[in-house]
Amino acid sequence: MKRNSYPSKLLLFGEYLVLNQGSALSIPYSTYSLKVTSKSENNLLDEVIQQLFQHAKPKKEFENRLFIHSLENFQKEITLTSNIPQGYGIGSSGAIVAFFYDYFIENKVSDLVALKIELALLEDFFHNKSSGIDPLTSFLNQGVVVESNEINNFEILQDYLPKFELIDSKKDRVAKDAISKYNNWQSDSENKVRLEEALRINNQMIRDIIENKNPIKWIEDLSKWQFENWQFLIPDAIKSEWEEGLLNRSFFYKLCGAGDGGFFLKFYNH
Q1: Which residue in 270, 263, 266 sits closest to 89, CA to CA?
Q2: Count of Cβ atoms closer than 10 Å to residue 164 Cβ
Q3: Is the model's pTM score more than 0.70?
């Protein structure tokens, strides 16, 4: 392991839909990152790494592969610090898992599908169920596109991606709680039908980005769909501005990660 930084991630498109065989597009976001330095002081992440080590140890996938470095060596040699806000949807746990896999796991897999699966097994510790996209993006430090059950590295041409910014909802959220709300929503048969429309919009949008076409029409459609169907994942603090953007069409909001708090993405229509 030679890296000293593992970036946060932005899941630009595909939140929840990737769990329903939809496409997803994720990019590293180095403004926030997990930093690795020589041991200088203890910190709260020491305990998290110990717990993650115990989570990984009994899994058959990591049998005889978990000891490049011992937990004792980690505690003596490494200090981890992070400025990635927890509960904000930009991959604080994904960066920790990326470091853990890089530092502890021997004979790393190179196939991206298999790598995503192994990283998801580790991130399950934080979320019960993980898609693996967050730690994969952080581990590779590259854009990742998931499409038709295939995973590829991807570099976005910024000329074709509308300008966007992160908007702080000023509300903390727990991913497990947001996911539970989504699962309750999805259990309704009528909502499963509505989800098909979101999948169509999302997948065509990502296809246009891959083909270097401006996706703003689809971003507008997705923003409208999320506002109409996922009100339970949109904090009151940004609902009025979200609706304003849909009315004047100058900008469009969408979820960033699980929703229900943390950051949201705001795309500008110009």
Answers
A1: 263
A2: 17
A3: yes
Q: Quick check: 88 and 170 in contact, CB under 8 A?
A: no
Interatomic CA distance for residues 89 and 261, integer angstroms: 8
Domains of the chain (ranges, CATH numbers) = 5-154 (3.30.230.10), 158-268 (3.30.70.890)
- Burial class of residue 171, CB neighbours in 10 A (0-12, 13-18, 19+): middle
Residue 195 DSSP SS3: helix
Between the CA of residue 26 and those of 18, 36, 39, 155, what are the distances in Å? 11, 23, 32, 10
Rounded CA gap, 14 and 193, in Å? Answer: 17
pLDDT in tens, the chain (270 residues): 568 999 999 999 999 998 888 999 999 999 999 999 887 776 778 889 999 999 998 999 998 887 788 888 888 889 999 999 988 889 999 999 999 999 999 999 999 999 999 999 999 998 777 889 999 999 999 999 998 878 998 887 667 788 999 999 999 888 778 888 999 999 999 999 999 999 999 999 999 998 989 999 999 999 999 999 999 999 999 999 999 999 999 999 999 988 999 999 999 997
